[in-house]
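Quick start: load a record and inspect it. Here is Dihydrofolate reductase:
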Amino acid sequence: MKLTVTMFITLDGVAQAPGARQEDRENGFELGGWLVPHLDEDFNEATERWASTVDAFLLGRKTYQIMETYWPHVDPETDTMSDQLNNLRKYVPTRTLTEASWANTTLLTGDLVAEVTKLKELPGRDLQVHGSPTLVQQLLRARLVDELRLLVFPVVLGTGKNMWHDIAPTGLRLAESKASSTGVMLQVYQVAGEPLTGALDPA
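Running the structure step on this input writes:
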């Protein structure tokens, strides 16, 4: 399977509590809900299209615990993501959880790199990560990510969990780019290994 990451981030790289103020108050974060005013049909079209190729989910423990309180109660007739999240296999790397009540969940308690490498070797289309910034940072450091699907919102917060801190230098190749009607940049990048470098000729 191809490992893809779908991430909602601000222009300064914050990936914390996009959907509601009370969603994640870790470290005193009080600016949650910054995504909501920018939702539109362009956003819906992109996220639904990207989700159409999912065969399994890989979710960080905190993201998983947030999702399991919401998605089992969403009508799949009104939101196809609900059907996928509730019925497809979900894998959760964790050192703290000992059981999972959400159906079709497998807890990964071994070495992260080894566990995810095995998952990527399974037949199928996308192994999708949604949110889970701490997990994504680890996956990028291990060079396990194949594609980044970024929704970059026209918001600068200056505080919160920054997606780009403590990752391996990574080269990217732009595969898709579009601006939504509300100014969200919908971008798909294929991971291309280490970044290329060069030097400008002296004047």
